[in-house]
């Protein structure tokens, strides 16, 4: 005998199966970052954090608790301090910072996760993120400026993507081309991104700003890891319809 299954139930089962087979880790990391931001005083959405000076004080305390402070990390004052490169990966300084990073993670993380496998991708993401933030802290050991964001880990994902999918085509928006959406091979987009990070690092002043060094360390370490791990296997030369924005991680 055959059992009739309601159409809605069947579609629901199909949707859950597709979700379970998709890049769960990538979606989970994005969800955690978004949730952490929405619940934090940085989003400005929770009245309990107050406003004005009270809100700024709450934001400053939040950064100091969960972000990396190079001078403290290099001293290794406490186990909590040594864990801050992990917690900082889920803290972002504002809406643009969050959305830019999550866009890059969504575009490049999904395919990379499918190629590496979920557990492997998660361990790589956390490890490369820790390395990038620690390297920045070591190069700025006397700084008390807080460092937050998933940029170093996502840069590592970009490095792996460049090695594994050099010919995959992504849609990019370049300022000097009037932000026209144009499709380029991934190797062109990512090498151009790397060059921008390098030039920005050379021209950056001391003080608060973008941690370009963490980007470069993450990207370079990610590419090197992929080369060592996958050099005996064929790289993938397919195409992807994913869209990359102009926002840098």
From TrEMBL:
Pfam family example for this protein? Rhomboid
The portions of this protein that span the membrane are 20-39, 89-109, 121-139, 145-165, 177-198, 210-228
Domain of life the protein comes from: Bacteria
Question: Could you tell me the membrane topology recorded for this protein?
Answer: Multi-pass membrane protein
* Compartment(s): Membrane
* Molecular function GO terms recorded: serine-type endopeptidase activity
Which UniProt keywords are present, listed alphabetically? Cell inner membrane, Cell membrane, Hydrolase, Membrane, Protease, Transmembrane, Transmembrane helix
Gene3D superfamilies annotated for this entry? Answer: Rhomboid-like
Q: What's one GO-annotated cellular component?
A: membrane
GO BP annotations, alphabetical order: proteolysis
All copies of domain Peptidase S54 rhomboid, residue ranges: 83-230
Q: Which PANTHER family match?
A: RHOMBOID PROTEASE GLPG (PTHR43066:SF26), RHOMBOID-RELATED PROTEIN (PTHR43066)
What name does UniProt use for this protein? Rhomboid family intramembrane serine protease
Organism field: Streptomyces paludis
